[in-house]
Specification:
Elements: H1 2-9, H2 13-92, H3 95-106
Length: about 120
């Protein structure tokens, strides 16, 4: 009986090999599942990273478009101001206005006939 009990306690070579194969297969299955999970995580991470990059790019494009619109509005207002200033310069340079200012504000007068000196070139 003692011999029989010892045999039952010690697994046979066949049982040991079968147990090794089961644990080896089980380890491979666990490893395979871990690799699949890692691959899935990598794919999800790459898609998330691509999504963040795409959203960042579109946000930057929107900001640039707003800056362009603001710059165009500023350009239009400056062009209107420039046109207004050109008209003002033209009105300030008009000969009629200058004559009126000379006569009324400065007190200038037209010269009389005796104030004219006629010069002739080369004849004495």
């Amino acid at each position: 009986m003692l011999v029989a009990q010892k045999r039952q306690q010690q697994p046979s070579f066949y049982d040991q090999q079968r147990t090794k194969r089961k644990t080896g297969v089980h380890r491979q299955q666990k490893l395979s599942i871990a690799v699949k999970k890692l691959k899935m995580f990598a794919v999800v991470f790459i898609f998330a990273l691509a999504s963040v990059a795409l959203i960042t790019h579109y946000t930057y494009m929107i900001q640039v478009n707003y800056q362009i619109e603001r710059s165009l509005d500023e350009l239009n207002s400056l062009q209107k101001a420039q046109q207004h200033l050109k008209l003002e310069i033209a009105s300030l340079r008009s000969p009629d206005r200058l004559e009126r200012i000379a006569l009324e504000e400065i007190g200038m007068k037209y010269p009389d006939q005796d104030q004219f000196i006629i010069l002739t070139a080369g004849v004495q």
